[in-house]
Amino acid sequence: MSDSGGNDTDERVVIEQRLLKIDEIFIYRIPPMRSADGHRAEDWNLAKPLATCSLVVARRDNDLCVNIMAERPKEGAPRGATENYLFAQSNIRVDLADPSHNKIEHWVNPVVDSSRYFALRIKDGKSGREAFIGVGFRERTDAVNFRMSIEDYINSLKREEKAAELQREFEQSLSVGEKSSSKGGGGVDVAKLPLPKSSLSLAEGEKMHINIKSKRAKPANQSPKSKTGGLIGLKKPPPPPDASPASDDGISTTNSNEVEWGEFEG
Q: Whole-angstrom Cα distance, residue 251 to residue 112?
């Protein structure tokens, strides 16, 4: 985009992707931890939650935003009309390169006595103060989905970091090739050269072995297969009778070491 002064400026685009939405969660005011083991849901007075809200997990750029939404009466609207507002928010920013900011437990801690409750670190946007609140789910599947959305966020960061590393290695290899070509005086633009193709030809002296299965030849003393067909016996059959040919073909053996099966008449 161009401004009025004619200078080109890049407008930063922030992409937001919603990962999870749960219509009902319970918010608790939690006391300090009693031990180093972690938070315990039994200390939260689960029968009396602070609020009943909804939860939205969304990735915004490299941050994971956990928005807790509540309802309130809508001003200027008919009686009974409500509107959603932001009750609390947790902005999770994991930096895989920084060991002090690459652990999700800094923001989200599961309790030690249940799989449906978590301690979530929230931050006040005005004062900047941080505190933990309790988050509970009625259904166990909702708690699993919440955990999986956080794991998807971490895995996506790892994939993007790996892709960026491969891109840097590729650009570095191109720069090294450009320097070598400039020293040689060839004047070849390495960036425009096609990528090397994989060679499927055999090297000098290399051999390829192919195993092709083939049927073994019949022994010389084995009588030719009759076209009369029939049932199967355990001993070598006698010469075929003079009866009229049957409709089915006989079965021939493929291994001389196996028991030979012949024809017999019922």
A: 69
Q: Rounding to the nearest 10 degrees, give the CA dihedral for residues 220, 226, 232, 238.
A: -70
Q: Is 165 helix (H, G, I), strand (E, B) or coil?
A: helix
> Which tokens is 234 given?
């355990």
Q: One-letter amino acid identity for 129?
A: R
**β-pair partners for 53:** 25
Least Cα distance to 105 among 138, 63, 151 occurs for: 151
* Segment 124-167, tens digit of pLDDT: 878 888 999 999 999 999 999 999 999 999 999 889 888 988 88
- 263 burial via Cβ count (<10 Å: 0-12, 13-18, 19+): buried
Number of neighbouring beta carbons within 10 Å of residue 117 = 24
Q: Kindly state the tokens that stand for 168.
A: 């840097």
